[in-house]
Amino acid sequence: MAQQPICQLEKEQKFEGFLLVRTADQRTGSNGSKYLDLNLVDKTGEVNAKVWDGNVPCPMPGSIIKVRGTTLEYNGRLQLRVERIRTAEDSDPVDLSLLAPCAPEKPEDMYRELVETAQNFQTESIRRLTLDLLRQYESRLLYFPAAQKIHHAERGGLLHHTTGMLRLAKLIVQQYDFLNQDLLFAGVILHDLCKTEEMDSSDMGVVKDYSAEGLLLGHLVLGVTRIQEAANRLGISGEVVLMLQHMMLSHHGEPDFGSPRKPMFPEAEALHWIDLLDARMNEMQGAIAKLKPGVFSEKIWSLDRRLYHVRYEELDCENQQNP
User: Fold this and answer.
1) Closest of 272, 253, 262 to residue 172, by C-alpha
2) Contact 296, 308 (CB under 8 A)
3) Measured at the alpha carbon of residue 306, what is the angle toward residues 69 and 163, in degrees to the nearest 5?
4) pTM recorded for the entire structure
5) What tens digit of pLDDT does each residue of 116-162 get?
């Protein structure tokens, strides 16, 4: 019998099946007892799970486990209280295609969209440099997520984030026609490439941990370095290299978020806001999808606020009554 997809789970429902571990932490409760806090996924969604037995070993992120438990509702969100848990065995009938959350478009199609955009750049140096770096990271881009768990944390999520930003950038340049399209689009394509070096991801798109380079340098510094290496390799120098490096270094916008410099020219400023908008819309979409209409979420720490699931059906009914 096929297991219930996460997206179809309701409260006070029994569940037994195989799930992919996105995150796993052993924590200590207010009474001093240890428990496991897990975020488990299949391709349809994600559910938080608690294992209240402090003797159960913590599974590795990216591993597949078999769980049995009961769902409950906590602060408007579904949660799984795990009664039994074990690591999946080779003999288990696990269908991997049902477990990994994936970007809504094929990675090959999204990658092709980036390449075709870069091929149409009018500035030769930007075109050559962007295509060179895209080819360098092609194999990783086809499965890498954009983050461990905040936004676009899915197989192909980095391409999902980047193509979403690129489509938004193509709309923005229609309004602000003084922007240099080649420079802005290249900044979008290149800005997160080095997340493939910053994180250690399985080919299912689950980040196990951050790499030593990621912890010590981060993808902004790594990106500045890789742009310079590509420029040296291709014999490119001058303003274009410096501008792309600044866009890489400043795209988080503020020192508190990792950027040692704020954006200092329009294309860099646009890149920062396009990045922030696409990331936050994806994060909000994921959080709202886990709530029932009319319910507030718990505080989402990355956004520093709670979110509300609007009763959209009531708005639709009102529109139909008042055409």
Assistant:
1) 272
2) yes
3) 85
4) 0.82
5) 999 999 999 999 999 999 999 999 999 999 998 889 989 999 999 99
